[in-house]
Amino acid sequence: KVALTGQPLTAETATCYGLDGDDQGLLVTRVDPAGSAANAGVRQGDLIQEVNRQPVKTAIEFSAAIQRSGVKPALVLVKRRNNVIYMTLKANS
Questions:
Q1: What is the model's pTM?
Q2: pLDDT tens string 36-62
Q3: Whether 6 contacts 27, CB under 8 Å
Q4: What is the per-residue pLDDT for 90?
Q5: Which portions of the chain are predicted below pLDDT 70?
Q6: Per-residue pLDDT at 93
Q7: Read out DSSP for 14-66?
Q8: Residue 76: predicted pLDDT
Q9: Which end of the chain has fewer CB atoms at under 10 Å, N or C?
Q10: Calculated CA dihedral for residues 11, 39, 37, 14, nearest 10 degrees
């Protein structure tokens, strides 16, 4: 279970989290400490920009992309302030 919640990034939320207003992606608003997202290092305030090299902007797009990975870990591109990080997430951890 990945277990995170998020919202599309807006100019207002970008400023609050130290991101650029022209960034796009899913802003992580909550991470379940028992989920695979937390185990991978995802934090509140991270901006998930891609899953398996496909852009994601909504929670629905993110969930669908993770599910398409099946049993293989998904490669997730995360922007944290001015750093870009690749992580791997499994849907069924």
A1: 0.91
A2: 899 999 999 999 999 999 999 999 999
A3: yes
A4: 84
A5: 1, 92-93
A6: 45
A7: HHHTT--TT--SEEEEEE-TTSHHHHHT--TT-EEEEETTEE--SHHHHHHHH
A8: 97
A9: N
A10: 0
**CB distance 17 to 10 below 8 Å:** no
Cα 91 to Cα 93: distance, rounded to the nearest angstrom: 6
Q: Choose among 17, 8, 66: nearest CA to 37.
A: 66
- Comparing CA positions, the residue from 57, 27, 93, 30 lying closest to residue 65 is 57
Q: Is 59 exposed, middle or buried (0-12, 13-18, 19+ CB in 10 A)?
A: middle
Using the structure block, give the residue that is written with the tokens 């185990």: 39
Tell me which residue has tokens 């929670």. 59
CB-based contact 25:57 (threshold 8 Å):
yes
CB neighbour list of residue 30: distance below 8 Å, 6 or more residues apart: 4, 5, 6, 44
